[in-house]
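Consider what follows.

. . .
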Amino acid sequence: MINNTLIEICIGNIQDAIRAASYPIDRIELNSALELGGLSPSLETIRSLKKMIDVPLCCMCRPRGGDFFYSEVEYETMLKDAEEMLKAGADGIVFGFLNKDKTIDLKRTGTMSDLVHSYHKEAVFHKAFDETDDLDRSVRDLIFCRIDRILTSGKAVYPDILKGCEILHDLNEKYRGQISLLPGGGVRIENIQDVLKISGCGQVHMTSKKQSQGGYLELDETQLQEMLKKIESM
């Protein structure tokens, strides 16, 4: 934590997670395939990282790219995947279930939340939240489902997260103490201070990514260092 700011970084592979853990970050959101918006990591990646680093790992549970309207077989598979990730050492599960009308799927969300909490870990609803039409109602629905944290840009279209920060501020003030709001989706060196100041959420989700020579998205340590300096200088 720097300047009372909790820092989460989104990581897409094991090597980058090891590199990121050498910095003063508080939490890793562990994925695979960041090029597709982030999919579930492998179980062995989780097991290996838990032996090598001390930073908490919140693991994405998402079987494919695209929308968040899952078939029954996809949903059942996600529940099994989540449980296996928890058994492998995940400190939280990041997921999102929507209905076709872009409201929160209360039944599936509640079931997943109960599963995660049965392992005494964190249930995190990802940016599927920003696909919903009524954010205020969606926050209340997620509180009802006992979700611990929401990753959100306040409906701002990537990468213009600043356009959603006033909304995040209002939601944070209204529901503080009931659920945690994590600003993310377009956080950059040039806007990270404003995101933190305007939203007032006290935490931030960043990716600090660049295109690798191998064609995948990897950690940009120079960018990460600059973003941490921005937080330190606030």
About this structure: The helical segments are 14-20, 43-52, 72-88, 106-118, 135-144, 165-175, 192-199, 221-232. The CA atoms of residues 69 and 197 lie 34 Å apart.
